[in-house]
Amino acid sequence: MLGNAGTKSAGAGRFKLGTWGWVAVFVLAALVPLFGPSGYLLDIGVNIMIYAMLAYGMNVLLGYTGQLPLAHAGFFGIGAYTVGILTLKAGWSFWLAWPAAVALCAVLGLLLGLVAFRTKGDAFSIFTLGVGVIIMLVINKWDALTGGNEGLNGINPPAGLEVLSKGVGLKLSAGFYYLALIALILTVLAVARARGSVFGRSLIAIRGGEDLARSAGIDVFTHKLRAMMLSTAIAGFAGGVYAVYVGFLGSASAGPAMTFTVLLYLLAGGLGTLAGPLIGPALLYTLTQSLKGLQDYQYIVFGPLLVLLIMFAPQGLAGLWMKAQARRELAAVTGKKGAERA
Amino acid sequence: MPEVVQSEVLHSGSELLRVEGLGIRFGGLHAVKDVTASIPAGQITAIIGPNGAGKSTFFNLISGFYKPTSGRIVFQGQDITRLKTHEVVASGMARTFQTTTIYKELSVLENAMIGHRVRTRAGLLDALLRTGRERRDEQESRDAAMTALTRVGLAAHAARPAGAMTQEGQKRVGIAMALASNPKLLLLDEPAAGMNPEETVSLMTLIRELVAGGLTVTLVEHKMSLVMSLADHILVLHHGQKISEGLPAQVSRDPAVIEAYLGSHAHGGQMGQTATGAAPHA
Question: Are A208 and B106 within 8 A, CB to CB?
């Protein structure tokens, strides 16, 4: 299902946690609300999943295509505000507003890409950072549409979610948890399929060397545009869940600080891996929450931990696992063929 | 092998590629200037010249990697001067790089599959929806890549990381990547650079086999022994201009060529020595 994970032996860089590993993770996650956990625990779960979706979106561009996009939270904001505005002001159902937000983010991602991909490397990142700031400012200043500084208040839960949750004997918070979980599963599935495809292999080729990819016959610009669209669409998808979950939107959620938080989670989890964008938010968000009591002092713990992580696991936590596995595979290969080359 | 042959009858020696008044200027420097030449089909054409003669630039021009500032390029009767690089590849021309520029972290098979991308159409939506086209293209990529690997003698190494291959093996991976796009014309940029004599001979054998199979090969090379024994046709560049063209025996006796090489020798260049500078794109 997940791009035939594990069944193909061919790939280095293919995700190592096989399909069954993923099924197990998601089944376990789905069981959590049945044990009657506190609302606080479910809240952490939903937040992790929203951050994870954002990290998956960023991973498509940064991890697979090798382009660092710094407007990511801007699209998260656009997705969230689109859902907020359409449901509050236009009276749309969430179930229509959500796909509309995703489509809008994909189209805006295309437009951004058409301009931004005329630059490369650092220039691309800086350009998109500027766009991210502009998106936040527009949201902050456009009072009539977005509520400006006041934000957007009172976004209702998706129609039917409360009834459905109560119907099966769960609280609304559990309903949100399942909504986020399903959204996350769809995200992982989409990203895994994209990565494991002919298209995805071309992205990896672009990451490995743009000039080489071009000479090998890959239409680099078009592939980057598609990757950007997938990335921003996923950001908007996450934004939609966020909007109905928190019920209140402020422009800060669309700003660079959010982008860098996601970037940090992604780096910690493991760039270019399928597990990394989930592992990073799961550990780091939990950590920040548990250190919250320390207030600003939490960074005394947090900072050194990050330094250690970058020093000893530059490929992130998923990277550590993959490295260990690669070492085992190499040992198996060199055990057989070691003498032949020298 | 869906290869070549049946599409059109290209007699060995008929013109496959022609450049007319080709030139490129980088700022004030005319790296290549007013070159008119043609590459005959089914043969091995070598482009030679002293260091800095513009050979690699010329290569980058015909492969669409650089856009010329003057002149035009006609490939199989079609003007490809303004095509983008990937469109040039699609038209049937593939290249390798001077250094062993391949995807070292990917498997040998995946490298070759990337070379076949230009022949497949499956995009993002096909990937997300797992359409029939996606599955067909994936299978076709795999088959075409295996065919290409078989041609260069690497079929048994398909699953190995490309970076774990020897220098010569990596060159072959680069050639397989190019072959996977089903080219009519294969451009090799200094294929023997960094190889020992034994590996060079083995590579020459491979190039001869490819040409015997109907491919046209054009190469930039510094090793004169390789050029003289391999090439059917030689094009000599000096200061970005063509100074001689013809059979190896003719070219090697051409006073202009001797002058160019000896002249550049006096200024420090050496005939037959491998360039040490890195490629401008690596």
Answer: yes
Structure tokens at B103: 């995807």
Residue A130: count of CB within 10 angstroms of its CB: 14
Residues B111 and B164 in one domain: yes
* B193 and B267, same domain (yes or no): yes
Amino acid at A165: S
Question: What is the pLDDT tens value at each position of chain A, 342 positions in all?
Answer: 344 333 333 343 444 457 888 999 999 999 888 887 888 999 999 999 999 999 999 999 999 999 999 999 999 999 999 999 999 999 999 999 999 999 999 999 999 999 999 999 899 999 999 999 999 999 999 988 988 888 898 888 898 888 888 888 888 889 999 999 999 999 999 999 999 999 999 999 999 999 999 999 999 999 999 999 999 999 999 999 999 999 999 888 899 989 998 998 999 898 898 999 999 999 989 988 888 777 777 777 777 877 887 777 777 888 787 778 777 777 776 665 444 443
Q: Report if residue A4 sits inside a domain.
A: no
| Dihedral over Cα of A180, A182, A188, A190: its sign | negative
Reported ipTM:
0.85
Same domain, B199 and B87: yes
Q: Is the pTM of this model over 0.90?
A: no
CATH number at residue B228: 3.40.50.300
Partnered with residue B72 across adjacent β-strands are B20
Same domain, B17 and B128: no
From the list A282, A285, A286, A272, the residue with the least C-alpha distance to A316 is A272
Whether the CB-CB separation of A277 and A56 falls below 8 Å is answered with yes
Angle at A294 between CA A293 and CA A297, to 5 degrees: 160
Count of structural domains within chain A: 1
Structure tokens at B179: 């072959």
Residues of B with CB under 8 A from a CB of A: 63, 65, 84-86, 89-90, 94-95, 97, 101-103, 105-107, 109-110, 113-115, 117-118, 120, 122-124, 126-128, 130, 134, 137-138, 141, 158-161, 164, 166, 177-178, 181, 281
Are residues B75 and B113 both part of a single domain?
no
> How far apart are the CA of A309 and the nearest CA of chain B, in angstroms?
23
Containing domain of residue B137, as a range? 105-182
Pick the last residue of a domain from B146, B161, B182.
B182
Same domain, B159 and B211: no
Instruction: Establish if B100 belongs to a structural domain.
Output: no
CB atoms within 10 A of CB A263: 22
Nearest chain B Cα distance for residue A234, angstroms: 13
Of A12, A202, A333, the CB nearest to B117: A202
Q: Count up the domains in chain B and report the number.
A: 2
